[in-house]
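**Protein of interest**
===
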Amino acid sequence: MENPNSYVHSNIAGLVTLLEACKSADPQPAVVWASSSSVYGLNEKVPFSESDRTDQPASLYAATKKAGEEIAHTYNHIYGLSITGLRFFTVYGPWGRPDMAYFSFTRNILQGKPITIYRGKNRADLARDFTYIDDIVKGCIGSLDTSRKSTGSGGKKRGPAPYRIFNLGNTSPVTVPTLVSILERHLKVKAKRNIVDMPGNGDVPFTHANISHARRELGYKPTTDLQTGLKKFVKWYLSYYGYNHGKPVN
């Protein structure tokens, strides 16, 4: 909401720049790119399946990722690019994004600062299908290993090329307060919880992936539950930042 153009710049203009380079390449590469579970938006049918509606985004970020899927389809159709879009579900783990909740919760718990936990309508806990980075990587590699060739060259299509979309999730949503409890256990520090109602900023109350399509086509099989994944994340975090989150520990 603060910098909408950054999403358009990266997720739409950036993707078009990439696909323009790919369409003209000789030979054309097969493309695997990151879409997002956020494309399911206001969809309430669970678990989320690739064939579900994705035309009701709840945030500009989601809308740019949905636009990316449509743009990718266009390049597949016109130029014969083989394209696979991966809808990632709340990826976490070592070397993750510091703006993600699990990461900032860890930092604030260690610094003794309060953490803000949002809850949805009727005081329902928010839940996410947290997916550990190693499982996501296996799904990415499976996508690359199974992506068939593009069919164009020099910007001309020779025949139909594969266009695929897969959910990559963990299939077991966990509520945010449970996530915090697991972090408390691993950090051996109690969190100062500040529970507030969710503002209307486009976040959805829950995500839950149906991964049967990825399991069938890619052999995708996530094996890391949140308890195990957060233990690995905390171990990395403490070795990288130390308890004070000052400068990285050498």
